């Protein structure tokens, strides 16, 4: 990790130095007036966006179909617009999958029923005129304008035409015009809406402290324009009732309250500050270069550090919980090497666990048969079903010796695993060792012979006889009657070579890599007709490796096998 830390530290220094230099340069070049102008333009843009979003909320009963309109506003102003409910669930978002996460704090709260404590005038709800009413009133407005050219007509949010000065009672403007009063006559839509408003208002009055009959005798005085609907000559509580009634009436017709987030468009850099004309191009290029470099550095850091480290952390937790299948793809570099080391460790743990389970199972199986035989015959003798004759004693002794050999083999393997396997080296003639092993393994049904040349080395003769004896015993065991086993000894350069060749059944190619594994047998049925515990070849490998040598095997199925031991003549331990 040292080189990674150095590179990351130097890279951070370069980025920091460049950023500080550019920031200082930009600060010195920028003018206070330009910055304020830029900030004012940004605030004005935000205000325009807020007003357009608020208009949509005031004129629609939900945000369900707002995406297209928000996309239009976002394109017009060059901003990303996102709306969420009070729980943070997105309602509308003009960004895409590559857009960054929204900021924690919203830009504003969009609520047409509470804009600085007031109701947005565009929230007309049930006051919205029908097309027929709209056309009829606008026809009156056209006649009124023709009657008096000084009258200026504007349209209210619900579609009703009205005088621009909001004072329909000034007769000097239209007292001689026949259609003046008609223009301000309530339509059926407005009448029904005001009736509903009056009912809601009365219900609110009933909840106020005081005499409901007195309050009911003082109905609210409301104008024809719901934008400035007021209650005249009433207490603040009564005035609050009309606001409550209006919000209750309009609530089904406006979109729910939402949080507004305004950010730069996804994939774009923030708009650069409008600086003075001196060196604008050069400053802009340098600033963009630094921004690109910082973005690239962030991407590299996130990809090469955060993701692999998080993956390693998660995999480590899984491994600690007992999952031996956890693996990590760490990529290249030091973290990649760490990931490879972790994967190797995880694979080793998995293999060790598998070997432990197999070892326990195999030891239990190997001990069960001889112990079962011994126990059974002893119980039979105790019950008087068998006589303790010499034949029975010999059989029980053979089973005991089998157990002893298995225990000795397990002890040897345990010493090899712990690195405490002791060798008592002395100068020996290796051909004498071969002769001793061949003479001890003679079999009437199989031709067992030796082909040796004199070879001398320093080694442990007992352990070498054990190693070679395991190979010869294995060859005899798997060679059919009238077969042949040949033990060869010769010297190749600075190595003594022992080969045990047989004409047995051979080993399948898929089984060759497992020949020296503990408790492995080519015969998966675990039959004892061929004898052996499945530990001999594993012990041979450890004994040969303790002498600094190697053991290998070549075989052809149906043709026989050749086991080869190579021992260095000059090896010292």
Automatic annotation (TrEMBL):
One example GO MF annotation: kinase activity
Subcellular location per the Swiss-Prot or TrEMBL entry: Cell membrane
InterPro entries: HAMP_dom, HATPase_C_sf, HATPase_dom, His_kinase_dom, HisK_dim/P_dom, HisK_dim/P_sf, Sensor_HK_Regulatory, Sig_transdc_His_kin-like_C
Keyword entries, A-Z: Kinase, Membrane, Phosphoprotein, Signal, Transferase, Transmembrane, Transmembrane helix, Two-component regulatory system
Chain ranges of the Histidine kinase domain: 362-571
Primary enzyme class: transferase
Catalytic activity: ATP + protein L-histidine = ADP + protein N-phospho-L-histidine
All copies of domain HAMP, residue ranges: 303-354
Signal peptide stretch: 1-24
Enzyme Commission number, as recorded: 2.7.13.3
Superkingdom, taxonomy of origin: Bacteria
Name recorded for this polypeptide: histidine kinase
Organism: Lentzea atacamensis
């Amino acid at each position: 990790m040292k080189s990674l830390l150095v590179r990351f530290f130097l890279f951070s220094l370069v980025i920091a130095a460049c950023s500080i230099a550019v920031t200082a340069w930009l600060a010195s070049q920028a003018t206070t007036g330009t910055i304020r102008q830029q900030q004012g333009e940004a605030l004005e843009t935000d205000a325009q966006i807020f007003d357009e979003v608020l208009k949509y909320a005031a004129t629609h009963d939900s945000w369900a179909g707002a995406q297209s309109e928000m996309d239009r506003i976002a394109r017009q102003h060059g901003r990303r617009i996102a709306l969420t409910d009070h729980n943070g669930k997105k309602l509308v978002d003009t960004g895409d999958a590559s857009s960054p996460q929204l900021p924690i704090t919203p830009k504003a709260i969009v609520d047409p029923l509470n804009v600085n404590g007031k109701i947005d005038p565009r929230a007309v709800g049930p006051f919205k005129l029908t097309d027929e009413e709209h056309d009829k009133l606008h026809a009156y407005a056209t006649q009124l304008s023709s009657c008096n050219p000084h009258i200026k007509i504007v349209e209210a949010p619900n579609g009703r035409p009205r005088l621009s000065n909001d004072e329909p009672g000034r007769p000097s403007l239209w007292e001689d015009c026949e259609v003046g009063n008609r223009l301000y006559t309530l339509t059926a839509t407005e009448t029904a809406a005001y009736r509903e408003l009056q009912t809601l208002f009365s219900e609110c009055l009933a909840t106020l402290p005081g005499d409901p009959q007195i309050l009911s005798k003082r109905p609210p005085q409301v104008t024809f324009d719901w934008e400035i609907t007021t209650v005249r000559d009433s207490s603040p509580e009564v005035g609050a009732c009309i606001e409550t009634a209006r919000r209750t009436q309009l609530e089904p017709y406006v979109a729910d309250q939402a949080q507004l987030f305004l950010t730069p468009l996804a994939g774009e850099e923030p708009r650069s500050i409008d600086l003075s004309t001196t060196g604008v191009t050069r400053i802009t290029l340098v600033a963009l270069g630094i921004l690109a470099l910082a973005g690239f550095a962030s991407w590299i850091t996130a990809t090469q550090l955060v993701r692999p480290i998080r993956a390693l952390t998660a995999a480590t937790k899984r491994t600690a919980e007992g999952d031996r299948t956890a693996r990590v793809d760490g990529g290249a570099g030091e973290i990649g090497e760490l990931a490879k080391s972790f994967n190797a460790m995880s694979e080793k743990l998995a293999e060790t666990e598998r070997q432990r389970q197999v070892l326990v199972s195999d030891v239990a199986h190997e001990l069960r048969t001889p112990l079962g035989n011994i126990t059974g015959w002893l119980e039979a003798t105790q019950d008087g079903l068998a006589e303790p004759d010499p034949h029975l004693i010999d059989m029980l002794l053979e089973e005991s010796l089998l157990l002893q050999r298995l225990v000795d083999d397990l002890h040897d393997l345990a010493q090899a695993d712990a690195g405490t396997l002791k060798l008592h080296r002395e100068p020996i003639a290796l051909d004498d060792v071969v002769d001793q092993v061949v003479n001890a393994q003679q079999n009437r049904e199989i031709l067992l012979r030796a082909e040796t040349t004199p070879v001398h080395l320093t080694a442990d003769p007992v352990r070498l006889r054990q190693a070679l004896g395991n190979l010869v015993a294995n060859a005899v065991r798997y060679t059919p009657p009238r077969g042949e086993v040949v033990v060869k000894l010769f010297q190749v350069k600075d190595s003594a070579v022992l080969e045990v060749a047989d004409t047995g059944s051979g080993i399948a190619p898929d089984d060759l890599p497992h020949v020296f594994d503990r408790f492995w047998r080519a015969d998966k049925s675990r039959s004892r007709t061929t004898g052996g515990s499945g530990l001999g070849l594993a012990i041979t490998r450890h004994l040969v490796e303790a002498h600094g040598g190697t053991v290998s095997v070549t075989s052809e199925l149906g043709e026989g096998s050749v086991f080869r031991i190579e021992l260095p003549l000059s090896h010292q331990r």
